[in-house]
Amino acid sequence: MSDTIVAISTPRGFGGIGVIRLSGDKALELAEKIFNKRIEMPRYAYYGAISIEGTPIDTGIVIYYKKPHSYTGEDVVEISMHGGIKNLEMVLNYLISLGARLAEKGEFTRRAVENGKMDIFEANAVIELIEAKTEKGVLLASSRLFGKLSKAVMSIRNKILEVNSHIEATIDFPMDVEEIPEETLRQSLHEIRDSIEKLLSTYKDSRVVIDGVRIAIVGKPNVGKSTLLNALLKFERAIVSEIPGTTRDTIEEMINFYGFPVKIIDTAGIRESEDIIEKMGVERSKHAIETSDLILFVFDASTPLQEDDLELVRFTEGKMRIIVLNKSDLPKALTKEELSKLFPNEPIIEISALLREGIDEVEGEIKNKLLNIDVDSILVSNKVEHDLLSKALTHVNNAIKNLETGTLDLVSEELREAIETLSDVSGENIGENVLNAIFERFCIGK
């Protein structure tokens, strides 16, 4: 018998609707103690008064989901009331006084995993869907929520199971079962290994979809970095002035860029200065460069190359860069041809950030360099999943090595370990610490 948990499932604040969720053996019994009607049929919406010790507090709709046909696999009751703060708190506290326990973070979804309503991949997809910053993030999470990764992993698991069953039968009944030719077995194991590696290879792209990328706008003072930032953001975020050093700190803004979350960082111009505030800004700029995924390196077309430019060239060596020659609307003192000698293998784009000319080309180059990602092909997007598959891959690689020594017993042992690892997606054999790490990201009520 499970204890009955309760929580407010909607965000705190004022809104049209607020929802209180109960899950556990006494969910229906407790709900009927605050509702003025008997709840006789599962999945029917009952409208009536919600009361505390006989005093009506609110009106609302109550729906009962009978186990196992519910989100958690237990008896669940959802009470929809008007979306206030105090009315929801009063009803919540009263239900707790009647014997319900306040749910922990993610406990409803954790119970769903423990009761076989979803696996850990789908549970991860729930929180990714909630936290998604862009359309691409929603599409990635929803594909996983509907079992895309689970099906792929189970397909690999079944292939390993099929191969290992034949190996074990060969070992146990050598006279009755035809032995698999070594080359056929080797090919099967290589195909399994390749399938796991293909899944793992999507992890890096998933982090771009979920976490986004960092782009630092870099250049000496007064080359037009802040104007370029404003042009990319499509609104005036940074103060623009002809006075060098106007930006004395980094300015960061997150935007939805072709469906991907992109953080653009306008850095302070890097130069030697005795000004303490400016020196602090320069240090932050250097950190932004070091931690960025891409550099937009801005030069001033109206000014010849100077030592400050060359110092930044050296400082950004090894980073992915797009070279931007700004102020193309002014008389030229620096040409694209001159820059191509410094950056022979890097894209150079002429723009006028002030007139918003060439910005589309910059955006297109950013997309080509960082965001040329097929979201439909991404399956692995969580460290728990990555670690699980990596562990299975290690066992498969060990099986391949053992095959070369001719010891089928050891091959079978490694394949059994791989099968067990991939069976852990149900959550039954996952360690408590791992489960805690997954559901710690959830809010109370989910």
Tell me what you see in this structure:
- Belongs to the TRAFAC class TrmE-Era-EngA-EngB-Septin-like GTPase superfamily. TrmE GTPase family.
- This is tRNA modification GTPase MnmE.
- The protein has helices spanning 27-34, 86-97, 107-114, 120-131, 135-145, 148-172, 182-200, 203-211, 225-233, 276-291, 307-315, 336-342, 359-370, 383-405, 408-423, 432-439, and strands spanning 5-8, 15-23, 45-52, 55-65, 76-83, 101-102, 213-218, 251-257, 260-266, 294-300, 321-326, 348-350.
- α4 (120-131) packs antiparallel against α5 (135-145) and α6 (148-172) packs antiparallel against α7 (182-200).
- It has 3 domains: 5-103, 2-Layer Sandwich (Gyrase A, domain 2); 122-202 and 380-439, Up-down Bundle (Four Helix Bundle (Hemerythrin (Met), subunit A)), CATH 1.20.120.430; 212-370, Rossmann fold (3-Layer(aba) Sandwich).
- With 446 residues, the chain is an alpha/beta fold.
- Residues 243-248 have low confidence and may be disordered.
- The strands form 2 sheets. Strands 3-4-5-2-1-6 form a 6-stranded mixed β-sheet. It has a 6-stranded mixed β-sheet with strand order 8-9-7-10-11-12, sandwiched between helices.
- It is built from 16 helices and 12 strands.
- Helices cover 46% and strands 17% of the residues.
What is the N-to-C order of secondary-structure elements (H for helix, E for strand)?
A: EEHEEEHEHHHHHHEHEEHEHEHEHHHH
Give unreliable regions as ranges: 243-248
Distance between the termini: 21 Å
Radius of gyration: 30 Å
Task: Calculate the mean pLDDT score and round it.
Answer: 87
- Shape annotation: flat
Q: Mind telling me the CATH class of the largest domain?
A: Alpha Beta
Tally of separate helices: 16
Number of strands: 12
Classification by helices and strands: alpha/beta
> Mind telling me which CATH architecture of the largest domain this is?
3-Layer(aba) Sandwich
Q: What is the assigned CATH homologous superfamily of the largest domain?
A: P-loop containing nucleotide triphosphate hydrolases
Strand content: 15-25%
Strand order of the largest sheet: 3-4-5-2-1-6
Overall number of domains: 3
Helix content: 40-55%
Outline the biggest β-sheet. 6 strands, mixed
CATH topology title of the largest domain: Rossmann fold
